[in-house]
Amino acid sequence: MRTHTCGELGVKHVGQHVELCGWAQSIRVLSDTLVFAQLRDAYGVVQLLVERSRVSGFAEQKRLLETLTTDALIGVKGKVVKRPDDMAKGDSQTREIELLVDSVQVLNRAMALPFNPHVKANLPGEDVRLAHRHIDLRRSELQTNIRVRSKTAMAIRQFMDDNGFVDIETPVLFKSTPEGAREFLVPTRIGLSECYALPQSPQQFKQMLMAAGFDRYFQIARCFRDEDLRADRQPEFTQVDIEMSFVSKEDIQDVLERLIQHIWRQIMNVDIKTPFRRMTFAEATSKYGSDKPDTRFGLEIAQVPQLTSDQNTVAEVLVIPNGARIFSTKELAPLTSLIRVSQINSESKLTSMHKINDEGVTGIGKATLLAQSIKGNVSALKDFLVSISARSGDLLFVSERSQHITPANTTLGRLRTLAAKMLQDKGKLDIPADKFDFLWIEDFPLFTRQTDEMNGPTLQRQVRGQHYDLVLNGVELGGGSIRVHDRQTQEYIFKDILQLSPQVRDSFGHLVTALGHGCPPHGGIALGLDRLVAILTGSASLRDVIAFPKAASGRDLFMHAPAPATPEQLAEYGIKVDKAPPKK
Amino acid sequence: MRTHTCGELGVKHVGQHVELCGWAQSIRVLSDTLVFAQLRDAYGVVQLLVERSRVSGFAEQKRLLETLTTDALIGVKGKVVKRPDDMAKGDSQTREIELLVDSVQVLNRAMALPFNPHVKANLPGEDVRLAHRHIDLRRSELQTNIRVRSKTAMAIRQFMDDNGFVDIETPVLFKSTPEGAREFLVPTRIGLSECYALPQSPQQFKQMLMAAGFDRYFQIARCFRDEDLRADRQPEFTQVDIEMSFVSKEDIQDVLERLIQHIWRQIMNVDIKTPFRRMTFAEATSKYGSDKPDTRFGLEIAQVPQLTSDQNTVAEVLVIPNGARIFSTKELAPLTSLIRVSQINSESKLTSMHKINDEGVTGIGKATLLAQSIKGNVSALKDFLVSISARSGDLLFVSERSQHITPANTTLGRLRTLAAKMLQDKGKLDIPADKFDFLWIEDFPLFTRQTDEMNGPTLQRQVRGQHYDLVLNGVELGGGSIRVHDRQTQEYIFKDILQLSPQVRDSFGHLVTALGHGCPPHGGIALGLDRLVAILTGSASLRDVIAFPKAASGRDLFMHAPAPATPEQLAEYGIKVDKAPPKK
């Protein structure tokens, strides 16, 4: 239907007669003898000149163009000409040429669009755009994001294939796994109340593939969790899933580092240095108050044990240099509320904020109440502040938390992140978007409860000693571990460590059996593809890198999913509606 | 954990000290001073020699090896040596070398396996093997199949990427579509009886991507159908899904032909000639009695209109040369039962089988009753048989079917396929496995009911005038069509042709709306990846090209999916078990 795409036309086509197809936009009737328009396709935009002197039946074609709404589909024939030099601006090669139109044909008229996706300033709210996703996806940002996603997946697959990994599809119709996150159920007609469940990850399947001798497995796998949706969570998401036999942690990390290097080179044209920095969980949480620290900036937290005599308490200090001068008291409000929430959540025992005033560090005790147990140790705090050369105008956070819980995020860690964001917004802190600070977080505490595990835990409480997370600029890209590969150890962990009931242990019977049939030592990792692409495209929301995302409510506002099932449909599966589901 | 894989070792490694890991097999204690064993990994097998003169603590290592069961995991250190020339047989490069073992370490003991996957003759039935899939997958056939599948997917992706197609993931959590095949429902907690449904294909999403301007889309997509399972159907399957804008049927067929060429070159090292042969639906069903004919052999069906005076009847003849001599009367039984079943199904009005005896074609009337309406036309039949030079000993099938229904398979078509298989088994017909007879079947009747459509119909009754199927050696590899792209036509088809209820039409509202917002002319195709890989690997069953298939019952016999959901789990979704689902 076309001889060229709009995007490919350039000066080398000048003089050629071509046929193009695409969406009409910016139609302007300049005079009785001239109409300007733009023709857009997936590859670029071409300026169209419809001149009376050239076009037979000009009056009719002019009338036709006048009636077209934005994004009507047209086909045009014409001759490529060079644009006048003073108009050949812009970064697209097609800006250097334009098309002298011979004829215009309407391929599909368009009703008035609910919004114009090409005018960024006038875009409606996200829900309106999600409800008309076919139009929103015409935006150049989303076009780019989805194409970068495709290229990223291809780069990953190419690397994995080149490195001897076998791409193996694992089932989506799986079974419910006790103790995991809530899973979507899929009723069947097989038997009374029998359901498949959608997998949270291919974790069990990939371990079985190791037992089956596949040695190097990967898959870009769809995964599912029926969680209460947070702002940036999707009920279905995609992960790059990798597992290897006969390997150490270092072997897996090496593959991942080279994979990341390959992706960044292919997609960003940026060289990433390897090996990545290793940091223990203890260092990350004490120095940055987070198990996924953004290390592109300092603002490190200091442990000051002399502030407390309570053996059960960790006393910490965060200093924001000059913070009390940069922010007005009003501007400090977000930090104050963060502290308030952390007290309600009992994340910290007590956290307080202070300004160091003109009298120097001696002023500290006067500003506000100090954290409870530190009260008696003001002199120790003063000594500390002197030792770090704290100055008048600095902002000071002092916090106490329990020695016995090591949360993935401490209150000071959250304050550090928020304060950094506020400083950046004020132009007082440089957090370079083009710096990629990859980190391995290692040495996780044994048997902690997992709250946000990309690697699809089969159990929420899991042995994490051999675990590692890959972190980039404060974002957890993925995580993995060296797995338990022998039957006895696995049984011991299930029974004695995790104290699973016999019934729950039974449901993992196939795993234990497979380990007992000659399963090699193995380990792996999983990366969140959605997050990875969001970083590569600089997208604030995962919804901007997914072609058809669900809204925060879990609904597809465009296709109208989910939809009520009829009693007859449910009866096919031997189930019926009982009552409204409990409120989320 | 290893310096090399078993598969990569060759004569160039002779003299080197290496460390290997893998599964022990064929352990044989040859004498007090020598133990033979084989070490297998994902890449090959190496012969191990454990000699007293070399191994420190030989007695202990010998005892250890004696206690190992098949497929115990071991690591060995040793020196690569050349095998004696008279033993260096076999097609693997590793056969030329063996390993003089210095030490053996057990990495994971194995319980006795329920069956030995390496002894083909002793394999248990498929259900036993499916129940121990981690062991069955160690078989070299399945290892090869799964690896070929990975390479095939990679070849497809590489070709599509090279040709400017964008790989776009579409949702698995979709909504139920009226009038399609039965879909799996996924209850949600969003509202009373609200369910997602698993998609039968990405059909609607890919059309929306065309409306969104993606121009060239592809995806290797998981699809789902809750059908009563036939022997070789899976509730989840994978299709290569392709859609293009601004194209004709020929453009799509050209891309597909080049894709097929690329796959066959990459995977089979075979050059496929293009363009593929085109055949109309009418020719396929009349000449081969099938809309997916195997054209590697003749045995064509002849229409003989003079056999009947009934305008509403098609009279057809199939001759199997020498068939009455090749097969005994007992051996003809499968053909007789096929005829009987076709009569019960009313597929044909009447079909009869005859032998042409020594008296020549004149004997025909005596053998058995002729099909009813032909009875009065025996002389016309004789004339026909003379015209095709039918001879004594030929087997003859005469059939009548309604003029007004054109089934995808006629009775004579089924008889042709079965007779060909029987002739092949007797060595009387050559159907070369290495001949790839690709065909486009086109010009489908308008508005027929679709029964087996790879391309994921949104409606079972669909406009099929612009439809095309890709057929290979009697197998439907896929199908597609040029879609309706303008709103008015789509509405007309929904309302006036298909006579959908307003309620059903509403559920397609987003599709109609999107067509009205400037949707380009577009079309596409979908290929069944499972079938494609089955052909490439010469596998008889789709289950042999899927890592974790469901048994014919729909169950995963290994992971034990589906499993009963608890009342508490169902209550989360506001549903409860009503009664056992109706029998399938």
Structure commentary:
Two copies of one chain form a homodimer. With 584 residues, chain A is α+β, with helices and mostly antiparallel strands. In chain A, 28% of the residues lie in helices and 24% in strands. Chain A has helices at residues 58-67, 126-131, 133-136, 140-162, 203-211, 249-268, 281-287, 323-326, 333-344, 364-367, 378-387, 411-425, 487-497, 502-507, 509-516, 529-537, 567-571, and strands spanning 17-31, 34-41, 44-51, 73-82, 97-108, 166-167, 185-187, 194-197, 216-224, 236-245, 277-280, 301-303, 313-320, 350-355, 395-402, 438-442, 467-472, 475-482, 522-528, 563-564, 575-577. In chain A, helix 4 (140-162) packs across helix 6 (249-268), helix 4 (140-162) crosses helix 16 and helix 9 runs antiparallel to helix 12. Strand 8 of chain A pairs antiparallel with strand 20 of chain B. Chains A, B: Residues 146-549 form the Aminoacyl-transfer RNA synthetases class-II family profile domain. Chains A, B: This is Aspartate--tRNA ligase msd1. Chains A, B: Keywords: Aminoacyl-tRNA synthetase, ATP-binding, Ligase, Nucleotide-binding, Protein biosynthesis. Chains A, B: One of its GO terms (biological process) is aspartyl-tRNA aminoacylation.
